[in-house]
Write a structure and sequence with these properties.
With 374 residues, the chain is α/β, with parallel strands linked by helices. Helix content is 25%, strand content 16%. The longest helix has 13 residues.
Length: 374
C-alpha cells in the first residue's frame, strides 16, 4: 500500500522555491537511508548532496496483462492495451488551484446529469470484465462525494480488479481514511504543491495546509506507506480551458532536471515500466525518488494504457483530445452491456497515436481539468 504525498506543477512562479525548500522540510517524516540499502539502475547525474526532500507518489509498475487477458475492445489501432481506468466521481472541489480552474470557478454539470453510484459500478464492471485491472478515483475532489466509502467497497468487489487507487487533495481525508482502507482502498495519492502554508493558500486560493499534513500523517500511521520510497513528482504545466496556460509559464523537463541535479547529488535513472507516465530517478543517499511527468516536451503516448470516465458519464480516451462519447445516455436509454461495450470499443479504436503537441493543444478547445478529472 503506497500513499503519494505531493505533486509539483512545473510553473516558473514556484518551481525553484520548491526545490530549495525540499532540502530540509520533511526530514522528520522521511529520514535518509544508508548506502547499504541502495540498488540503483542507470547512470548518475552529479549534483551537491542534500539531506532530504519532499514527496509525492510512490510509483510502482502496473502489471503487464497477458495477451489473452484484455478484450479487443480495449486495444486500440496501434496495439496499446488499456488496463487502467480513471473515474472522476464529481466535478466539485474544495480548492481552486490556479492550474486547474479559473478563480471564479467553472459551471458545474447539474447533479441529475452526473453518474449515480449504481451507474459508476455498472460501467466500471464493463471495463474490468474487459481487462482493466486498475481503477483510480479522481475528481474534482473525490472525497466530496458522500457515498465515497460505498463506491470503494463495491468497486473492490469487482472480479478482476487488482488495484483501487484514489487521488485526493487531503483536505477531508484524515477522518475517513480508516474506513476507506477497510473498504478496499489500497493505493493513495495525496497532492500537496508546497510545504509553506501561505504559498499553499496562494496556489489553491483556499486554506487547509495543516489539514493536508494531518492526512499525510494519518496515511503513514495507518500503514499505507511507512517504509517504501517517497517520491517528489514534478509535472509540466499543461493547457486546459480556464487555467491561463502560457508556454512562458512552463518549466520544461530538461530545465527541471538541471535544477534538481544542482541541488541533489547522484540522480540515477530508474528503469521504468513501459506504461509509466513519469521519468523516475533515485537519489544517492536517500530512500526516496524524484520523478518528472513530461506531457508537453517529451510525451509518453506510445505506452499509454489509460482511459477516463468523467463524472457526467462521458468517456475520454486521451486527456488532451477534445473527443468524448457519452456512456450515460445510452445506459439510461436501456442499452445492454454488449451495446455499451461496442461504444467503448469504437472510441478506443479512434484513439490517436499521440496527442497534438502543446502548441496545438493550447489552441484546441478542451474542458477545464476540474470537469475531466485529475
Amino acid at each position: 500500500m503506497r500513499p503519494c504525498i505531493s505533486k509539483i506543477i512545473g510553473q516558473r512562479s514556484s518551481f525553484r522555491n520548491f526545490v530549495s525548500l525540499a532540502n530540509s522540510a520533511i526530514t522528520d517524516h522521511f529520514p535518509c537511508k544508508g548506502s547499504e540499502d541502495r540498488d540503483f539502475i542507470g547512470g548518475k547525474i552529479p549534483g551537491p548532496l542534500s539531506k532530504s526532500y519532499v514527496t509525492s507518489v510512490a510509483t510502482h509498475a502496473i502489471d503487464s496483462p497477458k495477451d489473452n487477458s484484455v478484450s479487443d475492445i480495449l486495444v486500440d489501432s496501434f496495439g496499446r492495451k488499456h488496463t487502467y481506468l480513471r473515474i472522476s466521481l464529481t466535478e466539485r472541489c474544495n480548492l481552486r488551484c490556479h492550474y486547474c480552474m479559473p478563480a471564479e470557478g467553472v459551471e458545474l454539470t447539474p447533479s441529475p446529469q452526473l453518474l449515480s453510484q449504481d451507474e459508476i459500478v455498472r460501467l466500471a464492471n464493463l471495463f474490468v470484465s474487459s481487462g482493466v485491472n486498475k481503477i483510480r478515483l479522481t475528481g474534482g475532489e473525490p472525497m466530496v462525494r458522500k457515498d465515497i466509502e460505498e463506491i470503494c467497497s463495491r468497486l473492490t468487489n469487482l472480479s478482476g480488479l487488482k488495484t483501487l487507487a484514489m487521488t485526493t487533495n487531503g483536505i477531508t481525508l484524515a477522518n475517513k481514511l480508516q474506513r476507506l482502507k477497510e473498504c478496499g482502498l489500497d493505493l493513495l495519492n495525496i497532492s500537496l504543491d508546497t510545504l509553506v502554508a501561505p504559498k499553499f493558500e496562494f496556489m489553491t486560493r483556499r486554506r487547509g495546509h495543516e489539514r493536508v499534513m494531518k492526512s499525510i500523517d494519518a496515511a503513514v500511521e495507518m500503514g499505507y506507506n511507512p517504509v517504501k520510497p517517497i517520491n517528489v513528482r514534478f509535472i509540466e504545466f499543461m493547457p486546459f480551458d480556464g487555467n491561463v496556460w502560457n508556454v512562458k509559464k512552463l518549466v520544461p523537463y530538461a530545465e527541471m532536471l538541471d535544477i534538481v541535479a544542482k541541488d541533489f547529488t547522484g540522480l540515477e535513472r530508474i528503469q521504468d515500466h513501459p506504461t509509466e507516465t513519469a521519468k523516475n530517478f533515485r537519489i544517492d543517499g536517500h530512500q526516496g525518488t524524484v520523478s518528472f511527468i513530461t506531457s508537453m516536451t517529451k510525451n509518453f503516448c506510445a505506452g499509454c494504457n489509460r482511459l477516463r470516465l468523467l463524472a457526467d458519464g462521458n468517456f475520454k480516451v486521451c486527456l488532451f483530445g477534445p473527443s468524448e462519447v457519452s456512456l450515460r445516455d445510452p445506459l439510461r436509454n436501456g442499452a445492454d452491456d454488449n451495446e455499451l461495450k461496442e461504444i467503448i470499443g469504437a472510441a478506443v479504436k479512434r484513439k490517436k497515436q499521440a496527442h497534438a503537441g502543446m502548441f496545438d493543444i493550447a489552441k484546441t478547445p478542451n474542458r477545464p481539468m476540474i470537469h475531466i478529472g485529475g
